[in-house]
Amino acid sequence: xNIIFKKDTWQEIYYSLRNNxxxxxxxxxGVGWGMFLYVSLLxxxxxxxxxxxxxxxxxxxxxxxxxxxxxxIPYEGFPxxxxxxxxxxxMEMLKRKIIDVDYISPQNARGSFTGTPGESVSRNGxxxxxxxxxxxxxxxxxxxxxLIYGRYLNDADVSGNKNVVVIGEEIYKNLFDSKKKENPIGxxxxxxxxxxxxxxxxxxxxxxxxxxxxxxxxxxxxxxKMYNAGEQIDLFAIVSKPNANVxxxxxxxxxxxxAKNKISPEDTNAFGSFNLGKEFKKLTGFLTGMQxxxxxxxxxxxxxxxxxxxxxxxxxxxxxxxxxxxxxxxGAKPAEVRNQILLESVVxxxxxxxxxxxxxxxxxxxxxxxxxxxxxxPFYNPTVNYGxxxxxxAVMVILGLIIGxxxxxxxxxxxxxxxxxxx
Length: 423
Prior knowledge:
Largest sheet: 6 strands, mixed, barrel
Strand content: 15-25%
Strand order of the largest sheet: 4-5-10-7-9-8
Number of domains: 2
Oligomer: single chain
Order of helices and strands: HHEEHEEEHEHEHEEEHEEHEHHHHH
Number of helices: 13
Mean pLDDT: 82
Shape: elongated
Number of strands: 13
Low-confidence stretches: none
């Protein structure tokens, strides 16, 4: 299209826009606002997605937390209200019978959400009551602890029934001189009259995590001996395989345990559970819906703006009837007139979109700076996929060309003799 490379073409577009500054500006707002909404809302939705990914980093989001309760239905001679228990042997049985189970971490705990009192922890005359949890090394794969000193429990600690402990930051601050950054590794603390060597200190993210920094973790085998718990387990943290249906795994686990414990398959009270995978899927579905809604709203707003540009160009064509007639009388071909109007439509559309895009990016930069370091707020690094933006720009240009055809065809249909008679 040679008209694009002609200096006269761009001069005409410039003078046309300059002579109608206010009208052109108001017209451009529609498309610019659509692109601004598209970029800013899409970036904000991505920022929320990144924020939740950061918040759940270190968590096995395809996990199920399961505990035993009481039966609510009589079954095979057993009355309702019978207490049910989880056992260590159940762990191997579940892994053997359910192929979609990846790994299981058993836990016993006192304090916190368990409904039992915490345990006294002391050192050098300082004492307080904290939550105490017996755990396996694999438990750190389900909810990874952010260690500020040392390490977490390992398999040797569990198999050797070692008196080692990983403490939360609050316990460390209370029992050690945190202001002088005293190194607690290798130091001893007293739990229930037994000395434990500190092997690690962890910090809990603000606003996230199932633990708190007032919890001490010891090997499950050591915990079992301390409280004579035998094979009994308070909680199973079950992680499904990556592509497995987490809801299906949860149901299978409950049915296998019900069959083993002679519990009615219809009993929904015997085992309690929290399906993190199910909740996380709801969250990701919400975020995907937000992004889709953003694309729809932005696209419709852009379309409305482009239609407004077409209407303005129709008015412009009417105002320039005499000018177009003179050009036609001097030998301008219909294609040249049409292309001139189409080019004006594309220039206005593209310029509006670029301004909206830049303003949207600017707003995202401000949001990013305002939320940096806010770990408790699920918003991080709001960005946009430039492929989506370029696609939106391409759609804008195509819409500008299609809708610009209406005023362009109107201009082409103007007969030179009639145009010259127009006052």
